[in-house]
UniProtKB/TrEMBL annotation:
It comes from the Bacteria. The chain crosses the membrane at residues 54-71, 118-142, 154-171, 177-199, 241-261, 273-294. Keywords: Cell membrane, Membrane, Transmembrane, Transmembrane helix, Transport. Gene3D superfamilies: MetI-like (1.10.3720.10). Residues 107-295 form the ABC transmembrane type-1 domain. GO terms for cellular component: plasma membrane. Pfam families: BPD_transp_1. Belongs to the binding-protein-dependent transport system permease family. This is ABC transporter permease. It is found in: Cell membrane. One of its GO terms (biological process) is transmembrane transport.
């Protein structure tokens, strides 16, 4: 009763002064069922782990495998499409057994070769792209000079350079490294510049007012705030790197998953072809999962 009188008196006072009446407090402590985190802009995100999302993901995989198995049984031709069981067993067998037609190496050895090439080219591309992106975002003249070059090279598929690189560099490791590099650098430059441009100017001005130099402000304030966006660019670049390396290994390589897939296809070893594709998928998911974990540490709102 006393609460109603107090609320009514506040509303009357607000009406007398012309101010909007104050809203009654509606905020209550979050319960275990409705535990949310309020983010910038009024968005909310569930704090607890979503088992339903995992369940739907597993269900999607089961349905895909069931459709695959059904089509394989209807086709009844293991060369065209082997069963799921045959593909998985082949994948498991060649993880430890050597395939004579593919340089006498096991599946995991070819996977390690491809992964090493990816990490070398992608890592160098990330470093170069972030460095150039940081310079372009900080020095306007450099941005004006490099922006047309980036825009011209960005739509070009790296695979179009394979014939040139084979002529220029042969079939060694150099063309593979450069092919990944030219695919990663433009993506990282654009991601870095966009992320740095999105950093609130108030943060930069505050650091400068405290005596930070432009370089120190870039390293400690702008790059730190832009890190989630940069990591997102790293994830996108990783996907493009896998596309590039597998394609070049199909044509100009004597090892790697692309070479294994091509050689197995020539010998009509369809289960081994699918095993190589499955290995690429596993490695890609693993690398992306590590980058997503890094993103969670870099962005507190995503935890």
């Amino acid at each position: 009763m006393s609460t109603e009188v107090t609320t009514d008196s506040k509303a009357a006072d607000s009406a007398a002064t012309g101010a909007a009446p104050a809203s009654p407090a509606l905020v209550s402590a979050p319960t275990a069922v409705d535990a949310t985190v309020i983010l910038a802009g009024g968005r909310t995100r569930a704090r607890t782990f979503s088992w339903s999302r995992v369940a739907y993901g597993v269900l999607g995989l089961i349905l895909s495998a069931a459709i695959w198995e059904l089509v394989s049984c209807l086709k009844d031709d293991p060369v065209i499409l082997p069963t799921v069981q045959k593909t998985v067993s082949t994948f498991w067998d060649y993880l430890t057994q050597k395939y004579p037609a593919v340089q006498g190496k096991t599946l995991w050895r070819h996977a390690l070769v491809s992964a090493a090439r990816i990490l070398a080219g992608w890592g160098a591309g990330v470093v170069i792209g972030v460095a150039l992106g940081g310079v372009m975002a900080s020095v306007r003249v450099i941005r004006y000079l490099l922006d047309p070059i980036i825009e011209i090279s960005r739509p070009l598929p790296p695979l179009a350079f394979i014939p040139l690189f084979i002529v220029w560099f042969g079939i060694g490791e150099t063309p593979k490294f450069i092919l990944i590099l030219i695919g990663v650098v433009p993506v990282m430059i654009i991601a870095t510049v966009s992320a740095l441009d999105a950093v609130p100017k108030e943060l930069v001005q505050a650091s400068r007012s405290l005596g930070a130099s432009p370089l120190w402000s870039l390293l400690t304030v702008r790059l730190r705030s832009a890190l989630p966006g940069i990591i997102t660019g790293m994830r996108l670049a990783m996907g493009g790197a896998w596309t590039s390396i597998v394609a070049v290994e199909l044509i100009a390589a004597t090892s790697g998953l692309g070479y294994l897939i091509n050689n197995a296809g020539v010998n009509l070893q369809t289960p081994l072809v699918l095993s190589g594709i499955l290995a690429i998928s596993v490695l890609g998911i693993t690398f992306d999962g590590l980058l997503r974990l890094l993103h969670r540490f870099a962005d507190p709102t995503s935890r």
